[in-house]
Amino acid sequence: MPTPLKVTQQYDAPAAEVFALYNDRDFIQGRLDDSGALDPKVQAFEPTEDGVTIVTRQAIPASVLPSMVASMIQGDPATERTETWKADGEGYTADFLLTVKGAPATIKGTMSLVNAGPGSTLTVVGTAAVPIPLFGSKIEGVIAKQITELLAMEETYTRARLAG
């Protein structure tokens, strides 16, 4: 059974201002660089009429993974994350998919960026799935924890950029 993931972030800027950052390739690359991951790259950045599709890639140092997980994957596992953002009423929504290269592991779900008072709220809801008997749920938990920590770093970076 997939492991749920839910993260909520609050920003002091309206949704349109936060979304403007998501439409800036340099911001996305800076956010990746700030994460501390290995070999961070913006693989694709495609603005559309009402949104943007972003594909990023970065590796997770095997040394930060639990030994059980590290033993199942050779080297530093690379992740590829695709976010497809679009305008949605007063806010913005995205479908996202994160895959771990060389492993049967994915996280997929939705993101919603909406105005909340004078600021905005980003809500990330998804599920981590690793279809491996016996160990799958443990690995899902590890992946969900790593992504939650990554999203917290991204929140800190975004807040700093919004503050100027």
UniProtKB/TrEMBL annotation:
Pfam families: DUF2505. This is DUF2505 domain-containing protein. It comes from Nakamurella multipartita (strain ATCC 700099 / DSM 44233 / CIP 104796 / JCM 9543 / NBRC 105858 / Y-104).
